[in-house]
Amino acid sequence: MCTINRFVIKIIVAFLFVILGNPCIYGQNNALVLNGGFINIKNGTWANPIYLVVNKGTTAAIQRNSGHIISEQEGNFVNWITNDVTSAATYVFPFGYSNTDYLPVTVYKGSVGVGAGHVDNSSPIIISTWGTPANNTTWANAVAGMTGLAGANETNSVIDRWWQIITNNNVTATGDFTYRGAENTTLFPTGPFVGQQWDIPLQEWVVPGTGTGPGVTTGTATVTGITLTPNGLATTTPYILSATISPLPIELISFTASCENLKTHIRWTDATETNVMNIELQKSMDLNTWTTIYVAMPANTSTNTNYNYLYSETETAEVYYRLKTNDNDGSSELSAIISNQPCNSAGNSISAFYYNNSLNLFSHFEAEEDVIYTLYDVQGRQIIAGQYTANKGETMTTIPIAELANDIYILNAYSITTNYNQKIAIAR
Do 191 and 74 share a structural domain? Predict the structure, then answer.
C-alpha cells in the first residue's frame, strides 16, 4: 500500500510525476493514475489537515483503473484545483474504504463563470470522507447536534459515514455519494436515502434532503443527485445520508401520543415557526403508507406553540405518527416518527422522549399509580433506576441524564396496569 503522511503533497500533473519506489501509482500524460494501488492519507485532523493536491483542473487529472484513495478521517483531504476549467465538468474523487470497497464521490460542477479568468469557477474542490461507529460519532466539524424532534436522536436514521466538502460560494454542483452496506445501521435500512447538509450559518440541518438512492446492508450503494448548493459551499459543508422516512428534523421540542378515555391524544410543541403554511399530522400502520388525519394552522411565531389532536383510533395494532410541515415556498419537512398502542382497550399509557440532557416520562392514568423505571445500556447493564407517583390524568417526570455518554439505551417503565419499553438515543 502506498502511504502518504505529510502535511501537504502536491501532484503536479502538468509534468510527469512518479512516486519513487512504488510503481502502483504514477503520473502519466498529465494525470495521477491509480492502477491497482492505494493512496492512504493518514493522521490529518481538522486543526492540522493533510492535503493530497491535484494541481490540474481537467477531469482526466485523476485516472483510476483499480485501487483508490483512502481518507477515513475528517482531516485527510483531496484538494482538486479546478480553476483552469471554464465549462461544466464532472469530477470523480476515487475514495475507498481500506483496500476493499470503492466509495467514489462524484461532483457535477455546473458553474462555468463569466469574463476574464472565469472568476465564478475559480475554486478548488476539497473533499474528505470517513466512516464512523454505529452512533455516528465523532461528528463532523461545525455540526452542533444530531438531535431531532421530540428529543429523538436521529443517528438511527443516518448512514454511519460523513462527507466534508470545502469550496467557495460561486460554485454550483450536485454530487453522488457511495456508502458501505455495513455502515447502514439505521432503523430503516431498506431506504430510500437522501443527502442532507449542515447549514453552518443557521446551525441546523437543511430539510428536506436531496437526491435519492437505495438502502443496502451488504456491498455498496450510491445516493445520486445530491444538491451541493446553495446553503453551504461558501466554506465548509458536512453532509450525511439520511433515511427519507425520518430525515433530520428541526424546530420541534416535543411530540407524544397517549391514551385518554379510550381515545388517542397527540401533542406536539413547536419552538419556532417561519413562513409555515400548515402542519399535517399523518399516521401509518406499516411505515410506508401515510395518511393525513389532521391539519393544524401555524402561529408563525418565534415562541413555543402547543398543538394537540384527540380522536378515536379504530386500529387494533401499533400505530405510527409523524408530522409534515409545509412551508409557503412549497418545501416540506418530515418529523421523527413516534408510535402508540391502540387506545380501544385501555386508558392508561406511558411514553418517553429525550430532550436537552433530560429523559422525560409522560404518563396518563385513569387513577393514581406508581411507575417504576429502569434505563439499561445496550449490553443490558442497569444505568438508572427510580420510581415516581403518576397522578390521575397527565404527569410529566423529568430525569436529568447529562452525565450519560452519547449512545443507545433501553428504557423500561411499568405500573400495575401498564408496561412500556423503548429505545432512547442520546446525542448532543
Answer: yes
Same domain, 302 and 427: no
CA-CA distance, 18 to 12, in Å (whole number)? 10
What count of other Cβ atoms lies within 10 Å of the Cβ of residue 100? 10
Question: Residue 208 in contact with residue 132, Cβ under 8 Å?
Answer: no
Average pLDDT over residues 68-89: 84
d(Cα 367, Cα 371) in Å, to the nearest integer?
12
Among left, alpha and beta (phi > 0; psi -120 to 50; other), residue 380 is left
Give the pLDDT confidence of 193-244 residue by residue, as tens digits: 989 888 777 777 776 678 999 999 999 999 999 988 644 444 568 999 988 6
* Same domain assignment for residues 86 and 223: yes
Q: Nearest CA to 57 among 16, 29, 89?
A: 89
Beta strands in 7-94 (DSSP E): 8-11, 25-27, 32-41, 50-54, 62-70, 76-81, 89-93
Is pLDDT above 90 for 245?
no
pLDDT range class, residue 292, cuts 50, 70, 90: very high
Same-domain status, 170 and 27 = yes
Residue 246 has pLDDT above 70, yes or no: no
Cβ atoms of residues 180 and 131 within 8 Å = yes
Cα distances (angstroms) measured from residue 409 to each of 137, 144, 167, 424: 16, 21, 39, 5
Cell 431506504 belongs to which residue?
191
How far is residue 54's CA from residue 31's CA, in Å, rounded to a whole number?
Answer: 9
The reported pLDDT for the residue numbered 235 is 56
Task: Report whether pLDDT(314) > 70.
Answer: yes
Q: Are residues 28 and 152 in the same domain?
A: yes
Half-sphere exposure of 298 (CA within 13 A, CB side): 24
Range of the domain at 410: 348-428
Whether residues 186 and 318 share a domain: the answer is: no
Residue 125's pLDDT band (cuts 50, 70, 90)? confident
- Integer Cα distance of 314 and 311 in angstroms: 10
In our burial notation (b when 16+ CB lie closer than 10 A, e otherwise), range 127-157 reads: bbbbbbeebbeebbbbbeebbbbbbbbbbbb
390, β-bridge pairs: 369
Percent of the chain that is helix, strand, coil (3-state, to 5): 5, 50, 45
pLDDT at 298: 84
Residue-wise burial string across 272-292, b where 16 or more C-beta atoms lie within 10 A, e elsewhere: ebeebbebbbbbbeeeeebee
Pair 339, 361 in one domain = no
